[in-house]
Amino acid sequence: MICFPNAKINLGLNIVSRRTDGYHNLETLFYPVGVRDALEIIPTGEDTGYRFFQRGLKIEGETGENLVVKALKVISAEKRIPAIDIHLLKRIPFGAGLGGGSSDAAFMLKLLNDTFSLGYTLPELEERAARIGADSPFFIRNRPALAKGIGNLLEEVELDLSGYFFVLVKPNITVSTREAYALVSPSIPEVPLEEVVKRPVSEWKELMKNDFEPSVFKKYPEICKIKEELYANGALYASMSGSGSSVYALFEKATEIRFDNCWVWKNKEL
Ligand SMILES: C[C@@](CO)(OP(=O)(O)O)[C@H](O)COP(=O)(O)OP(=O)(O)OC[C@H]1O[C@@H](n2ccc(N)nc2=O)[C@H](O)[C@@H]1O
Ligand SMILES: Nc1ncnc2c1ncn2[C@@H]1O[C@H](COP(=O)(O)OP(=O)(O)O)[C@@H](O)[C@H]1O
């Protein structure tokens, strides 16, 4: 059984407050995008156990287990899972604010549920995903959603950005989510996000913000330059995604914009 975990972008990201457990309450809109990993599990016929194989991008700075293995362990603690080989082909840039690791974990939960007919409902899968990462529950339903709490309280929204030309740029910088949170200052938005996304995309520039941008741009001015370039080339809306380092933009028309030393995904439909 194979699946293709996709990335997400954050449309607006307000850090609302710091919590006593070290996490932050936020308000953001998750939107799925078609940059994908490939994840396959193959039952080996043995009784129990697993082997993990990873190709594609080499995940640097990985401490502890891959999130796919964590997902397997969450389920194995509750149900008997026959032995499997796990193959992960990594294409989604990491340390990019694209949620690739969280997506891999959520898709692994769904893959196990389907392959071994485990009978978990979507809310039950979301609850298990939340144990792995704050962003992970979103990828269970994988539809545009307003997220509150630590990112786990989800409300689906009707938002269709197909028809725009989408550009995603990942510079050769990885930002640690934990460090980004340590530097951010909580703030209350002037206009609630659910109101902003009902307005035309051309108005978003004035109404929507990502609270990580000031501190991340200060540390890495190159990321800020990418956003400025996107606007200078006619973007209707541009923003850093999540805690960075990737920056995305929505254009009305296809763009010829180029970036040196960056991974670029250009003129795609969302
Ligand atoms: C910032 C966001 C925005 O969508 O995405 P990314 O930029 O990572 O993609 C998310 O909140 C990232 O969620 P996720 O990457 O799942 O975070 P986790 O692994 O659960 O937590 C990593 C660390 O980030 C901090 N953290 C995370 C979520 C949150 N609401 N408050 C926090 O303070 C904590 O220090 C935690 O130890
Ligand atoms: N399957 C995975 N894919 C990506 N990163 C993983 C994975 N498993 C563990 N990680 C760890 O999670 C970190 C964050 O990865 P990711 O969620 O893709 O980025 P971001 O937090 O920027 O959205 C990586 O730097 C890596 O240490």
From TrEMBL:
Upper lineage: Bacteria, Pseudomonadati, Bacteroidota, Bacteroidia, Bacteroidales
NCBIfam families in the record: ispE
Catalytic residue positions: K8, D135
Pathway: Isoprenoid biosynthesis; isopentenyl diphosphate biosynthesis via DXP pathway; isopentenyl diphosphate from 1-deoxy-D-xylulose 5-phosphate: step 3/6
Functional description taken from the UniProt entry: Catalyzes the phosphorylation of the position 2 hydroxy group of 4-diphosphocytidyl-2C-methyl-D-erythritol.
GHMP kinase C-terminal domain mapped to chain residues: 194-254
Keyword Cytoplasm listed: no
Binding residue positions for ATP: P93, F94, G95, A96, G97, L98, G99, G100, G101, S102, S103
Keyword Nucleotide-binding part of the UniProt annotation: yes
Stated family: Belongs to the GHMP kinase family. IspE subfamily.
Keywords noted in UniProt: ATP-binding, Isoprene biosynthesis, Kinase, Nucleotide-binding, Transferase
Listed GO MF terms: 4-(cytidine 5'-diphospho)-2-C-methyl-D-erythritol kinase activity; ATP binding
Reactions that this protein is recorded to catalyse: 4-CDP-2-C-methyl-D-erythritol + ATP = 4-CDP-2-C-methyl-D-erythritol 2-phosphate + ADP + H(+)
The name this protein goes by in its record: 4-diphosphocytidyl-2-C-methyl-D-erythritol kinase
Domain GHMP kinase N-terminal: from-to ranges: 66-140
EC assignment: 2.7.1.148
GO biological process entries: isopentenyl diphosphate biosynthetic process, methylerythritol 4-phosphate pathway; terpenoid biosynthetic process
A Pfam entry, by short name: GHMP_kinases_N
